[in-house]
Amino acid sequence: MADNEHPSEMVSKTYLGFDFSTQRVKTIVINDNQEILHEADVQFDNDLPEYRTHGGINAHKDGMTVTAPTIMWVKALDMLMDKLRVSGADFSLVAAISGTGQQHGSVYWRVGARDTLKNLQPEKFLHDQMAMAFSITDSPVWMDSSTTLQCRNLEEKLGGAQNLADITGSRAYERFTGSQISKIYEKRKEAYKHTERISLVSSFACSIFLGDYAPIDLADGSGMNLLDINTKSWSQECLDACAPDLREKLGEAVPAHTNLGPVSAYFVDRYGFSPECAVIAFTGDNPASLAGMSLREGDIALSLGTSDSLFLWLKEPKPKLEGNILINPVDSEDYMGLLCFKNGSITRERIRDECSNGSWDIFNQLLDMTPRGNFGNIGMYYDHMEITPALKGVFRFNKSDDAVPRFTSHEVEVRALVEGQFLSKRVYAENLGYKIDSRTRVLATGGASNNLSLLQVLSDVFNAAVYVMDIANSASLGCAYRAKHGLLEGKFKDVIKAPDFKLACNPNTDAAQIYEPMVEKFRNLEECLVAGKK
Ligand code: 5FX
């Protein structure tokens, strides 16, 4: 056995997952037993300083436009492949590749770029050969917020925000690709005319591996305000409302687990991939994380970070003005719900500092010593303009639903914050069509998921068992899993072994009795606030 050969590599095929995220491109190689064999990444700011990005992006002077140089992503891939080779990865064992990209960002291929992709020369770097491949050289990314005008236009043409949400799973958002394309068409007509194909970041990256234009997958395609999530195909009305000839420029969308064919000859000749290595459609980073966390039908995953994000597996989605519905990346018959809450740990930390002198231990004691239901008090803490719902400020209500300026004690304040944050998550999850039942599992991840006092409240509010998982790099790992799933076909859960989640808490027996009415109270109070009636 050669020194650099990994014993597990010798007995099994391997799968490669790539993540083209905002700040870096990262890859993970796993074997058939789902053990991680290699990892590597390239950071845009540090490793590619010539593009002068901060956090992987260029923020423009208008304060709203945010882009990234498309070719930077290509050069990062050149560097990443070399890093992976140096780390000893044996590319000849790779049975399938898949990947993911930051959602919503778009890439504009110049007329003729398809030929470039099909004829890449193995002795040269990709970035040297693809320098002229893009009609727009700076890709708009998800942090861009410059398309409010195009969003209002789109909603108006589609009969209002809720109608658009009913079709595409989301009301119009500035970062969503339909409005971004619409802006490019309005402002740069010539460049638009010379665009042969429009990709998402995910399908752009996939195209390089495929050596041809890769289709957009249905899950990432759901983040464009262009796909009809009911028929799982482009909505002609939405396409027409954004720009002409869009159907041809986008190509048909496919389920995320589609095997698109073998890897391009470039990768076979330059890196020694097997000519049979399959390329599985790439998808968006949030759908990829759902795969990385091995979410199952009926599961909820909650990432507790600076902001909190909730991922739902949905069977019968009900699109609303808050939250996004996407086609499920591991089973395209089903859906996933995505809810982002800006005021996560950032607000928990502010209350911790004010009520318990910066100590989590004291914060937890205060929380534990207050009865479930908090004597009927309810609080909503939106220090920063919240996304779900669009409210800013701190709102406190006593047991008679009267607004009060403050609560009587630190312990009531702490419990109001924690209960309020989890009640809100339950309200918006149920609004999107999620039904809690005896099989519901809440999978908690992220920094605050090691706080058992928080998790107990979460378990009580959802009246469900809470499990914890420590999955770093869930997006790239999810794509290594998806590579295997796409190659072997069948149900994801039958092909991919789920990680061992640790049971953290079970709900108390009185949880439903206390929190069912509180959920309704919270829903009504928040609806009144949003409507400006409180
Ligand atoms: C989701 O809608 C988002 O805009 C972000 O989570 C990006 O996908 C981050 F890459």
Description:
- By secondary structure, the protein is α+β, with helices and mostly antiparallel strands.
- It has two domains: 7-287, 2-Layer Sandwich (Nucleotidyltransferase, domain 5); 294-470 and 501-534, 2-Layer Sandwich (Nucleotidyltransferase, domain 5).
- The chain has 22 helices and 24 strands.
- Strands 1, 2, 3, 6, 13, 14 and 15 form a seven-stranded mixed sheet that branches. It has a seven-stranded mixed sheet with strand order 18-19-17-16-22-23-24, with helices on both faces. It has a three-stranded antiparallel sheet with strand order 4-5-9.
- A hairpin with a 6-residue loop joins strand 4 and strand 5.
- The chain is globular.
- It starts with 6 loop residues before the first helix and ends with a helix.
- 5-deoxy-5-fluoro-D-xylulose (5FX) binds at residues 22, 102-104, 142, 175, 223, 284-286.
